[in-house]
Amino acid sequence: MGETIVSMNGICKYFPGVKALDNVQFELRSGEVMALLGENGAGKSTLMKILSGVYTRDAGTMDIFGKPYGDLLPKQAQQVGVAIIHQELNMCPHLTVTENMFLGREIQRGLCVDKRAMEKAAEQILSELKIDISPTDRVGDLPVSKQQMVEIAKALSIKARILIMDEPTSALTAKEIDELFRIIRKLREDGCGIVYISHRLEELQHIVDRVTIMRDGQYIMTANFQDLTMDQIITNMVGREIKEKFPRVECPRGEKVFGVRHLNAGRLVRDVSFSVYAGEIVGIAGLMGAGRTETTRAIFGVDPRTSGEILLDGKPISCKNPRQSIQLGVVLIPEDRKKDGLCTKLPIRKNIALPNLDLLCNKFGVISSRKESEMCDKAVADLRIKTPSVEVNASTLSGGNQQKVVVGKWLARKSRVVIFDEPTRGIDVAAKVEIYNIMNQLKQQGIAVICVSSELPEVMGIADRILVMCDGRITGEVMAKETTQSEILTLATQFENKFTVAAAEEE
């Protein structure tokens, strides 16, 4: 590790009703990976947005490469050498890799854009990083992992020496994570300073040099990673010891609540059948592309079904669209809460009320303000949503609290079947435990709970029974207490032999 390239001291930031940062300090050195850790709402993203020019600060000083700076604009931050790679990638899907890398700063020859020069420059950067992507590939055709590599290449094209990575592995497979870590190590060797924000604490040991921990908008500590245990990191993050990562609740299995029979939908849902009983959580595991999310969307009525039957309390029901499903008590907490679960520009109150207007309106279609207030206040209290008011926009909440709002709007209508798709993606350790406790409460109430998760320890820790999918099919069913990760992975890789199928079809 070399010289200090970022020094922030006494940083304060206020939002209406919230003190997001309170006298925070932060330091980054060249040639190091600094993990910035804390619960959702700790202030990590706010601090980095000040560094990258997205937010202005209300107090404090900031030095970059030894030079003091006032408030920066995003373009100024880029010019200084700061680049941020957001969790939600900011790529233009219809443009090529080259066009994305040089968007807004195109190389020109006279009055014309020099396309060839840009492609050559892009190819050189991609080659240096050993990224197997063509500069002419359309970004929208690339998987998320490759799009992320393009973001990194773009950062290097502006000669960024300070890279901020916000949850960079949240949508990546194990192999893709290895590739990302290889690139991070190369950047570190080249003298870049990298700020690594992640809730996946198990990753840190592979790449992190030092950690800075924040809590409730305040600076807690900075230390060498090797000097801390994982328990010490978690305790400093949450301010208390978390005794149990996966709080399992034992319940007697009751009657069959929900069933799916021979469900087919598109290419990735093929003859799926399963049941869910009262008093249990059913997990769905599998590799990316196995058809897990597609199955939940088909059940909820987001995607059309080609065939199959859905049963509630033993009787067939019609869930041809989300509206029908909601009215029947079958609800989905989607994988992408910001895109599919929330109206982020609307207040918490409206987010909770919108899917429940049938419960809040009188026969003339007029919303009862009293009922609406009671419903929202109950959801906030029951789920312990951290917010100054139900009138603040959902976008201002942390990831964990946003997830609670999505859950809250469905619990307000006493749903019978609750499907969680990647319920803890992008949220911190303490918020994860809160979500697990909510799932346990539903389980105890006799509500059918289905949980889709890419995290094997999670699905094994919280589910009672696990369905494993591969290639759009259920390839196995195991009891969580009796299985192993190896057994689940074996079932998750039982791909259909295409050659055998093709031969059979020819006959």
**Strand portion:** 25-35%
Instruction: Indicate the CATH topology of the largest domain.
Output: Rossmann fold
The Cα radius of gyration reads: 24 Å
Average predicted local confidence, pLDDT:
87
Looking at the overall shape, the CATH architecture of the largest domain is 3-Layer(aba) Sandwich
Annotation, overall tally of beta strands: 22
The CATH class of the largest domain is: Alpha Beta
Distance between the termini: 65 Å
Low-confidence segments, ≥5 residues, pLDDT <50?
498-505
Tally of discrete structural domains: 2
CATH superfamily placement of the largest domain: P-loop containing nucleotide triphosphate hydrolases
Shape: globular
Strand order of the largest sheet: 6-9-10-3-11-12
Number of helices: 19
Largest sheet: 6 strands, mixed
Class of secondary structure makeup:
alpha/beta
Q: Helix coverage percent of residues?
A: 25-40%
Plain-language structure description:
- This protein is α/β, with parallel strands linked by helices.
- It folds into two domains: 235 residues, Rossmann fold; 248 residues, Rossmann fold.
- Helix content is 35%, strand content 26%.
- It contains 19 helices and 22 strands.
- The longest helix has 16 residues.
- The relative contact order is 0.11.
- The C terminus is likely disordered.
Provide the descriptors you would attach to this structure in a database record:
26% strand; 35% helix; globular; Rossmann fold; six-stranded mixed sheet; 2 domains; alpha/beta; single chain; 19 helices; 507 residues
